Amino acid sequence: xxxxxxxxxxVLLLAALAMVTLSCDDSIVDxxxxxxxxxxxxxxxxxxxxxLNRTSSNQILYWDGKDPDGLVVGFYYTFGNTxxxxxxxxxxxxxxxxxxxxxxxxxxWRFTTARSDTFSLEILTDTVTYTFSVLAVDDQNxxxxxxxxxxxxxxxxxxxxxxxxxxxFSSSTVKIPDRTFTIASFAWVVTDLDGEDTxxxxxxxxxxxxxxxxxxxxxxxxxxxxxILSGTQYETDADVTFDDRMTEGLHAFHLRAVDVxxxxxxxxxxxxxxxxxxxxxxxxxDILLVDDWATNSSDGRALYTQILDSLRSIKAxxxxxxxxxxxxxxxxxxxxxxxxxxxxxxxxxIWYSDVNPxxxxxxxxxxxxxxNGGKVIFSTLFSxxxxxxxxxxEFTPVxxxxxxxxxxxxxREVGLIFRSWNVAVWPDTLITAEFPDxxxxxxxxxxxxxxxxxMLVPKSSSRVLYRYQALPRRYAGMPxxxxxxxxxxxxxxxxxxxYFNGGKNLGKLIDLFLTTEFGL
Length: 520
Hints:
The chain is an alpha+beta fold.
């Protein structure tokens, strides 16, 4: 029994070996299979599943490809008509940018190795439909048999425009001053779902109570986000636009954005109320009195206007205007750019301030003004000092100001100067001859104290005009009070000038400044 089983296994083993031997003698035939074309697909981003409805021109598209017998190395995509993809032919050789596509419209196709991109589609009409098509390319330069395509019906989005408050750079509670001279500035922000680059232009109009904006639009550049309008043609920066409608009277400002498809934003108006206007005042061009005093507490304006009225009667043509920088409603403040251009309308500026001078605004408005021939008298208490600028006094004839030391109390700061001290302000010895018989009064007409008095530290090129008289029992030396620059164009006083009228001769001093120093 065992022998028979053994013999049977031996026979089967020999038969198997024979079959293996025979098979090794057969020849192997190689058959090169044809390279199969890759398959491509395209789809929208997950948050755009509704995009077959009309949508914006900014689209995020994704695509991918699979090759059954190789690797996908890149893609060609296009926007437009690809109804007959069989016309597309690839050369066998490959380039650095990808296979070269041979067709009369091949320039419209772009090669990429990416699998997604954001596209901003051009819109020239209210609605347009784009077809996005993509072809995959494998590692043997084989093109997909047909592209994957998706239609994108695009609806133009209207721009949205909002005025910007230039004082605090917010887009809320924007108001124009209730009164300006023939200078006004406006700033805005604009948004568009199709992209800000689709803004074709902005249009503005100035109206009065008898005109409408629709008939008098003026085009301005789509890159602008602010405009300064002037009713006066004068040598100024290129960003100031002359508009002969900026004349004396009531006006409103209108603004809208227009995109490349001709769609306009809602028209915005300042003042917002359709029944309201702001008043444009034709300025007197000789002197500008800038009231930078606290709201409803200026003791000076009546005195300055009285003095200027008197000086006007002495010298014909010495007219003046008044600008209030601290009106009751803070949102009515002028922007720095409008203030800078307003100052240029005048030959001289008399600027007086309380303990919080607007140094940032003054720096912008007065710096170049005085260097280019404008004349400035600037007076302030300097009691509280703060500014965002690195050197807030750069535009003045002084390097800095310092406290006055009290000699009776361990050299602490003199907090107050009292009328009872009989402190006078004297011309500096070097310029006494230039100001004969002139003495500033011993103290103020309207107050019994000067809080936190300061001494000025002039620049090396400047000169001191007036000093506190020596009072060794109270303070050291003769602190500088009034300083003038080398060009005789800028006079800075560390006390508001109207505090000096105790002797009733402030008018004479201002006349000397305007006439002798400024040549007006």
